[in-house]
Write a structure and sequence with these properties.
It contains three helices and eleven strands; from the N terminus they run H-E-E-E-E-E-E-H-E-H-E-E-E-E. Strand 10 and strand 11 form a beta hairpin.
Amino acid sequence: MVAPAGYIPPQLITGDADPLFLGESEITGYEFPSGTKISLSQEKIITATKINGRKGTIKEMSGFDDWQITIEFPLLAATYSISLGPLVESMIRKLKNLKKLWLDPDSIPVLNEKMNALGIKYLVIKKFEIPDAPIQYNQPVKLTCLSDEEYNLDSAGSESIGVLS
């Protein structure tokens, strides 16, 4: 199907051309709101060795550290503690849904085009911040995460996913 002339997809209007979803499914996962900010950084693992009679050090790179991921977003809700049916979640219900994600001890699958392009397929949440909000219907939230990868704890033939799976 061809879009009509002048058509602009809603994702481009809202600035959410690369949405973020964490989890296995829509039921157990979490879709982040439009406008979520994602910051990514990664460091090389470098060992520096001093040599007598030489200025500076000799550097040896032995790999890459995990990606450090910061996810910042506002939780917006029409009500604070009372839900207005299944379509209007309260702030407390939204916080409880986020808490389920936080309590997950395993690696969480990531669906985000930018992160997936950088090889980030799983992450673990290291820190969950909910600062005091000046308005109870607009709660800032910050998640600090580390990338995780599939690895095998038993043998080369089977796959195991997760920090301590």
